[in-house]
Amino acid sequence: MNELKITKLTTPIHHGEGPYWCPESKVLLYTDTFKATLYKLKTDRDTPMSPECFKLPNHDTVGFAIPIKDKKDTWVVCGDRHMYELKWPDKGKVQFKQIHTVEKDKPKNQFNDGKADIQGRIWGGTLKRETDLSVPEFGGSLYMFDHNLREHEKIPNVSISNGLAWSKDNTKFFFIDSATKDIEKWDYDAKTGEISNKKIVINIKEHGYAGIPDGMTIDEDDNLWIALFGGHEVIQVESRYGRILRNIRIPASYVTSVTWGGPNFDILYVTTSQAHLDEKQLKDEPDAGSVFALSGLGVKGVPPNQAIIQKYIFKAYYNTFKNNFEDIVASFLTAPLTFILVMTVVFSYIVLMMLQY
């Protein structure tokens, strides 16, 4: 019989969000939304070290971060309305450059939650944030960004774009607009990214839960794990019929998000917030804003997807050609037939990829 264990991993921050556990580096990346700061926590030690941090310069918020496939220590980071490439090695210089901007006509909007799908396309939602941090209704959208970062609006008129997940067979897509308190289920075409036939798995309010649904993940049995912001809990929900399977009380009222990690993907990492607590509440909840690890759950999660950005693949080919120009010329002079064959294969591959997208 597994015994649930809740372990506090970090000291509190203002508003923890967006956890992502990277299996290659054993790093848990998470954000402090309103401090526009990313944290990187190494989890391959019995006693975790203090996390490293990186503050986005001249930003009010940071939404989420996803590693870029085949680019070591490199992440797509969304802050305010902008998308960046962040190269953040353990040693050496941090590199940070803008690669896209969304909703240029909506200066109060910002990215909130986001993930990559099985094809490596980035799904990111926006919301409208007033200066007092309130969120008006229907100010945002959910977008899918293809490999060339072209944006495709999937769900318009979203109030608080939050949790996303896909079924194990990638035929269902789950989404949370926190303002509705609904957990949505859509039919999903993994090849095209099209969603259709929206249904409601469960409404949190109708089941008597406090707070609103926030971040979400899914386990290998296609059960959803949902953070309740203002509800003090993480709940496990059967995704087919909407049955509540488990309630886990977290030592913080404002539970923000969840993700699976660990060598066997059987640890549930949970982020929390202290942003809405007054002085008395902070004394009652000294661990609010910390990251927690839940073990002994008796279930495993699904490894997260990584982002694929096509333009950088073509750029890599160009840089390889440029950096090895002399060798390429020498190859042509000594073995012209081999050179022609290799270049034909490379060119054909590039053309096929361009036609696909």
Overall mean pLDDT stands at: 91
| The CATH superfamily title of the largest domain | TolB, C-terminal domain
The parts where pLDDT drops under 50 for at least 5 residues are none
Strand order of the largest sheet: 1-24-23-22
Fraction of helical residues: 10-25%
Percent strand equals 35-45%
Shape descriptor reads globular
Give an account of the 3D structure:
It is a single chain. The protein folds into 2 domains: 5-295, Neuraminidase; 310-356. It has helices at 279-284, 310-323, 325-334, 336-356; strands at residues 5-8, 16-22, 27-32, 37-42, 52-55, 64-67, 74-79, 82-87, 95-101, 109-116, 122-128, 140-145, 151-158, 161-166, 172-177, 182-188, 195-203, 212-218, 223-229, 233-238, 244-249, 254-261, 267-273, 291-295. The radius of gyration is 22 Å and the shape is globular. The N and C termini lie far apart (49 Å). 38% of the residues are buried. The strands form 6 sheets. A 4-stranded antiparallel beta sheet has the order 1-24-23-22, with no helix packed on it. A hairpin with a 6-residue loop joins β6 (64-67) and β7 (74-79). α3 packs across α4 (336-356). Helix content is 14%, strand content 43%. By secondary structure, the chain is mainly β.
Keyphrases for this structure?
Neuraminidase, four-stranded antiparallel beta sheet, transmembrane helix, about 350 residues, globular, gluconolactonase activity, 4 helices, mainly beta, hydrolase, metal-binding
Brief description of this entry?
It catalyses: D-glucono-1,5-lactone + H2O = D-gluconate + H(+). The chain is mostly beta strands.
